[in-house]
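Final report, closing paragraph on structural work. Over the funding period we assembled a curated collection of sequence-structure pairs, and we close with a single example.
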Amino acid sequence: MSGHNKRKGLIMKRFFAFILLAFCGASASAQTATADLAKPILATSMVSSAAKIPNVVINPNPVVQGKTFNLELQNLEKGKYSVLLFDKDGRKYIIDILNLESGNSTQQFDLPKEIASGTYILQVVSKSARFSRKMIIE
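Its predicted structure, as stored:
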């Protein structure tokens, strides 16, 4: 191995050790952090915890005026949620109130025909959370 490749390898090893130290804490040694690179447990736990992030998805988006759309509620806590729609002037349209069990749910809504085409903000709101998504109505 040439000197340049050894130096590049050492720099990369120190870089990954630095990154892992940030996750392991200041008391972890660089040697321990470097040894942890071979363990897939850290990557697996990061992926599984990221999968539990609450999210709201509008499908389809854009929505055709007067048609139905689905609201995918992912990893939301149990509770009462209001589904609201705001136009560019701030007018509020209450679409529905949901009583959700925790976990994932898909709710289907009929978009009222009196709501004109344009860009809106759809909010899903509870006492402890607020999700805002841009919704386009054609």
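The helical segments are 3-24, 30-35, 41-50. Strands lie at 55-59, 68-76, 79-86, 92-100, 103-110, 118-125, 130-137. We thank the funder for supporting this effort.
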